[in-house]
Amino acid sequence: MSRRQFGSVRKRGSGHWEASYWKDGTRHTAPIMFSAKADALAYLSCVETDIRRGAWIDPRFGRISFGDYAQIWLASRTDIRPRTVEQYRGLLTRILLPAFGRTELAKLLPSSVRVWYGQLSAKHPASASNAYRLLRAIYNTAVRDDLVARSPCRIMGAGSYSSPERPMLTVAQVEALTAAMTEPLRAAVVLASWGGLRRGEILGLQRRDVTEVGGGISVQRTLHELHTGEVVYGPPKSGAGARFVHLPRPAMAIVLAHLDVHVDVHPDAPLFVSTAGSALRPRFLEAEWRRARKTVGLEQVRFHDLRHFHLTMFATQGATTAELMARAGHSSPKAALTYQHATSDRDRVLADALADFVAPAEVVPFNQQPTERSRPDRAQTRRTLRAHPLSAGDTCPRQESNPQPGG
Prior knowledge:
Elements: E1 2-3, E2 8-11, E3 17-23, E4 26-29, H1 37-52, H2 66-76, H3 82-100, H4 110-123, H5 125-144, H6 171-180, H7 186-195, H8 199-203, E5 210-211, E6 216-219, E7 222-225, E8 231-234, E9 243-246, H9 249-262, H10 282-295, H11 304-316, H12 321-328, H13 333-337, H14 344-353, H15 378-387
Antiparallel strand pairs: 1-2, 2-3, 3-4, 5-6, 6-9, 7-8
C-alpha cells in the first residue's frame, strides 16, 4: 500500500489499484478501480482540490440508483402538466429505466450515455432525442442538489431533433378538407387553419371564449386525454399561450353559425361536444379527421399541418417575428421562425411584382466603347424614364443645398 499526504492507494488481488481517503471521520473509496497507480493518485489529487475549493460532494449521496432518483424527480415536478408527466413516465418506463435504472446515480459514465444514445438514435432518432433531454434534465437537478459533481450528458446537439419538413397546404386543399369534415366539426378545421389554434386549444374552447364584438377567440385553456382515458383541462402549452386571436371575417361567421346551432347557451358550454354532450375527446376528432383527409386524397396531412398552413400564410402577409409569436402563443422566437417559410406561390407573386421595373436593354460588353449604332438614344431614354412608375412622384426629392431648420 502506498501512502501520500492525502489519501492512499493500494494494489488489489485483481491487479487494479484502489484509491481511498478520509473526510469528516469517514473513509471514502473511489467509485471505480484504476488500471494504473498513477491514475489512482491523480484521482486523489482531484478530490483534494475539490475539498480545498469547497466543490467536494459526498459520494454516498450519489449511490442512490438512477431509477429511484428519477421517480423522486418526477414526483417533485408539480410545475408541469398532467399530459407532460405522462409523457415523461412513458420515456422512463420504455427507454431510460431499462438502460440505466439500476445504475448508481454517480456511476453513470459519459461514455455509457454516448453508446446508448448512438444505438438508440440510429433506430429511433425522435425517441432518442426526447429521452436524452429527459435524462439531461434529471441530471441537471442532481447536480444542483449536490448529488453528483457533473452530469454525464455531454453530447453536443443530442437533445435537438428536426422533424421532416411538413407539406405546405394550398387554400384549395384547406377548403376541400373543411368541406369533407362532418358539419358539427367543420368549425374546428376553420379555427386551426384560419386561427392557428392547436388541437387541444380548440377542444378546450367554451362559449364564453368567443367574442363577436372584435371577431376573435380567447384561448385560456387546453384539453388533453390521458392514456387512462381521463380528460383533463390545463393551461395553454406555454406562458404566452393564453391569448386573443382575431379571425378573418368569413372564418368568424362560420364559428358564430356553429355557436348558434351546436353549442349550449351556458357560458361554460364546450364548443365541440360528443353525442353524450360532454367535451369532445381528441381521439374522436382525430378519427373524423382521418376520414376527411382520406376522402380528398390527402392522407399524409396531419391536423397540426393546418396550424402550419395558417402561420405560414400569416408570415407571408408581412407579420414580424413578434407578431407571429403573439399569434401562435410561442414563448421563443425559435419556435415562431419555424413557420416563416416562403411558399413557391408567394415567390412567384413577388417575382411578377418586379416585372414593371425590368426594361429590355442592349448589353454593351465591359471596356467596349459604344459605337454610334449602340449609343443610347437620349431622347428615347428620357421618354422611358417619364413613363416609368417611379417617375410619377415616387422618386427621392432633390436635397436642398442649404436646408433650413424645420424645413
